[in-house]
């Protein structure tokens, strides 16, 4: 193949890759536009390394082109240039300069890395969240508040939230591009990190470690609210309205008890829901997403209940395609009543 064809092909591959990497949704939400102080200090590190790399690139290219032009072979001159091997001065120069550059990069990198992994202070005021990753969903437990939830991490704005991260199965990685991360979640080990959000909003989170068939679908959201809204959310979670009101909801609760309860817990109901294999569904009706992925509406809920494996390949959630139309509708009614 000619060189021209080769580079044309390479270029088109890069073009496709660039398109893929920018993604189709919300391309503006990146680490380059942080919305919290953890994200800001990570951006500072990224910029520091980019500036050092630009500096090295420019200096090396300048020397390269200078040498290329200044020492090019001139017509009629066949002499051997002056040989410089073993020059102590030059050897020292190109050993010491990289060491200095690496030190400039290493010192802030190490200190930032350690400060971003800081654990919650012992004074009892800090907001702690235990994050447990599962194939393919996220569990968020607030041990000091007695709340367990899934897929949506609620935090108050302008406060450091301390995360204790672990995994139930394989290695995952917690990443909210605008706020903080990435931090691995390893089975049998707890890693720590903290994050904060300066403005209320919903921030997209991703799993950043290949963890199985639905790794790329293991999404979650961080919902940052003013302290008063957060307190209200806490109060609702602690005292959820989970008791069915209508006849459909009551029948739906029966369907839930028989089919879903061994895996899914709902707090605040009179039944003993002990399930913890799947996401805790307390307040499900108020979540933005079904399965952390699709808009939380009736149609998507039914799609998920009927064929979860078609939406998240490899999910442990079984198909509930066998429910008759009436049971399915009642179950949805019940789930939509969980506020
Ligand atoms: Cu979990 Cu990738």
Q: Indicate the structural class.
A: alpha+beta
Write the element-wise H/E pattern from the N-terminal end onward. Answer: HHHEEEEEEEEEEHHEEHHH
According to DSSP, the number of beta strands is: 12
Helix content: 25-40%
- Fourth-level CATH superfamily of the domain at 127-238: Cupredoxins -  blue copper proteins
Number of H/I helices:
8
**CATH level 1 class label of the domain at 127-238:** Mainly Beta
The overall pLDDT, averaged over residues, is: 89
CATH architecture of the domain at 127-238: Sandwich
Q: What strand order characterises the main sheet?
A: 3-2-1-5-8
DSSP strand content: 15-25%
What does this protein structure show overall?
This protein has helices spanning 3-22, 37-70, 88-116, 227-238, 247-259, 298-306, 308-311, 325-336, and strands at 127-134, 137-142, 147-150, 152-156, 161-167, 172-176, 180-185, 191-195, 201-207, 220-225, 289-290, 294-295. It has 339 residues and is an alpha+beta fold. Among the domains are: 127-238, Cupredoxins -  blue copper proteins (Immunoglobulin-like, Sandwich), CATH 2.60.40.420; 247-335, Sandwich (Immunoglobulin-like), CATH 2.60.40.420. The chain is elongated. It starts with a helix and ends with a helix. 28% of the residues are buried. The mean pLDDT is 89. Bound molecules: dinuclear copper ion (CUA). Residues 133, 136, 172, 207, 209-211, 215, 218 line the site of dinuclear copper ion. Dinuclear copper ion binds at residues 133, 136, 172, 207, 209-211, 215, 218.
